[in-house]
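To the team - molybdenum atom complex, inputs and output below.
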Amino acid sequence: MSDESMRPYHGAAGGWDALVSTRRALKEQGAPATGARALLKANQPDGFDCPGCAWPDPKHTSSFEFCENGAKAVAWETTSRTIAQDFFAAHSVSQLRAQSDHWLESQGRLGIPLRYDSRTDHYVPIEWADAYALIGEHLRSLTTPHAAAFYTSGRTSNEAAFLYQLFAREYGTNNMPDCSNLCHEATSVGLPKSIGVGKGTVQLSDFDQTQLILSFGHNPGTNHPRMLATLRDVARRGVPIVVFNPMRERGLERFRSPQHPAEMLTGTATNLATHYFQPRVGSDSSVLQGIMKRLLEMEREGVAGSVDRAFIGEHTVGFEALSEQLRTVDWQQILNDTGLSREDFDTIAQLYAGSNCTIAAYGMGITQHRHGTQNVQQLANLLLMKGNIGTAGAGICPVRGHSNVQGDRTMGIDERPAPRLLDRIKEVFGFEPPRADGCSVVECIEQILRGDVQVLISMGGNFAVAAPDTVRTYDAMSRLRLTVGVHTKLNRSHLLHRGEALILPALARADLDVQRSGIQCVTVEDSMSMVHASRGFKAPPTQQTRSEPAIVAGIAAASLPHSRIRWRDLADDYRAIRRLIEQVIPGFEDFEERVKKPGGFHLPNAAAQRRWLTPSGKAQFSPASVDSSRVSAEFPLMLATIRSHDQYNTTVYAMNDRYRGVHGRRDVVFMHEDDMRARGLTTGDAIRLRGVHAELSGFVVVAYAISRGSCAAYFPEANGLISLDDFDEQSHTPAYKSIPIQIIRARS
Ligand SMILES: Nc1nc2c(c(=O)[nH]1)N[C@H]1C(S)=C(S)[C@@H](COP(=O)(O)OP(=O)(O)OC[C@H]3O[C@@H](n4cnc5c(=O)[nH]c(N)nc54)[C@H](O)[C@@H]3O)O[C@H]1N2
Ligand SMILES: Nc1nc2c(c(=O)[nH]1)N[C@H]1C(S)=C(S)[C@@H](COP(=O)(O)OP(=O)(O)OC[C@H]3O[C@@H](n4cnc5c(=O)[nH]c(N)nc54)[C@H](O)[C@@H]3O)O[C@H]1N2
Ligand SMILES: [Mo]
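Output:
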């Protein structure tokens, strides 16, 4: 391996390198002028919502809320590159399939509706009306509505999402798999059982008051860079930030804020994590149980602040059963599972006991496991033990992924909808919505393979590449009768079909959206339940590009000729959609007025007010089931799949991962030096990864500060290792971050 491709990064996160990288991203997309203008509008009160992440905007946005990866996301979508008319004439689908994901998306914005012509193996232009009619014909010809599925990725606005779920339900199915199934579903399933609400309970202001932050399994320096500004302020107040992450992540260690000229000019940075623990991949449940077990011991030893008995008595049920279990859990087991020491647990428990209000923030390192839901519930247990829900400066903070993934769920994109949503739809629209659960992403793939689902419509996203089990998923895509992609960019999910296929070009967040009634805005909900408006400003890539609400309305009108809903009128004026949302979804009273206010409005969260919407009416401690390490003699290492600094999910902006010191390649597997030495490996050696159900070749090993027994590779390159059957039973989230493997030296 060339020295150039692996260079440890010594700088802080942010700083000048972030500015340089931003400039490069804008330049590469041929968009310095519009791109820079777009940046000035992103996350400003009168601008558009940054498509980069779901971290909330501070109330008083600085004139330039700079964020390197937000900037890349904006540059990527405001690119001046558009796929030209002749592109699809020049490239057959088979030829396109041979290109990399990076190449496909780099071709620019989609600009005309396309239909696959199987005789020539090319996509050819189609009129919008004909595309809608074709979808309508297919949907009407299915023997059951459950033979269609409607996927959503989390950039879809509230307005589009509301129409989309309404259409699917009037059509007759709850088959609404969405990216949430692959992401924070463990939160949506676990938290309602624990605290009665499937969302986070904190707001930004809680960070101003908190006395301790516990950060589990997320990498904000790359995936939520604006969170670093929040963490910086917390750190500067002297508040401990305790990190649990198998990998050393620069963004959790040190940050130089581009928002603060003094830091940039003097080169000073803020240290973020005060304590950095590196448990083994997949051992969070044991970490959390160890902390709780230690707290119970400390209570018996008379240490003040270890357990809040008054809160537990008044607000919770199930604590005695949990305590009993924790007492029987063997310390040695916890230490073996996690790789942490007794002293580590002492330190953590003392910090926690000493804090009057604690926030626990977490990401995919907690959710994407076979026991993801349990992990979330153990985290809730830990917080409840000291009354850290529903009080200022404290709470649970799931850091969401896509910028409107939370809003889409609020709007009813849910394959397992609550009966009260369906009742409301019936009252307002007068049709009987389907009551049976629909399919999640993994169930959808299984159903396609069985022939039960035959039509897949995707509102954004890259279904095939985001899903696990590449071989079976691609096979599934080839069995569909009709594949429809409503997208901004070309991606692999458009190229795997053997049946009919359509690509419909959609407006992006930054694009100006003009409908019959004039310029439209849409609304989104961030990770902290703030709903606000977003209005694009950039000219759409072509006249032919349509908004997501307009496309849903077009499909619905063509598919449901007897519908009483005036679909096209709704798409002409989104205020009409918001009036319907107001009637159906709780918390949206006075929607139009309230969303006009800069910063928008906060959706009520019962748990944050200590109202527990659980069957018992109390917050619920969950049992601690120990899912001991899944590694075995044959598969001794636990692999997590992670994002690089230069990617947005399946969109690869560039081949670098600056903070982890990787340049120009994505074929790396990060591993602890001792684990490498034990196998006679050195950095740069070619290896194969053998999992329980598949083997992948073409990787090189790289020594990294990761816990022993763990390794990490990039998503989606390693997705083939994850079996479709390997998911959390409660939430159906694939075990993307606990893949037992062995590493085999490749013969060179
Ligand atoms: N620039 C950019 N921004 C993004 C995205 C993007 O791809 N690029 N994606 C968006 C989306 S959809 C999402 S969901 C979020 C994802 O944001 P994150 O949750 O930060 O996502 P990941 O990079 O998958 O993994 C995060 C961390 O989990 C750690 N980890 C792995 N296994 C374990 C484990 O077993 N336990 C613990 N405690 N930690 C573990 C890894 O070391 C890594 O630091 O970001 C959103 N924002
Ligand atoms: N191994 C592994 N796999 C994972 C993960 C992991 O950590 N490890 N993470 C999972 C997670 S958390 C998630 S959320 C999923 C992500 O899964 P998805 O949300 O399905 O994937 P994305 O890569 O975000 O989708 C990219 C595509 O969205 C389209 N797009 C972008 N913006 C817009 C828009 O504004 N409108 C429309 N209509 N289309 C748009 C573009 O065409 C682009 O090609 O992946 C999951 N897969
Ligand atoms: Mo996600």
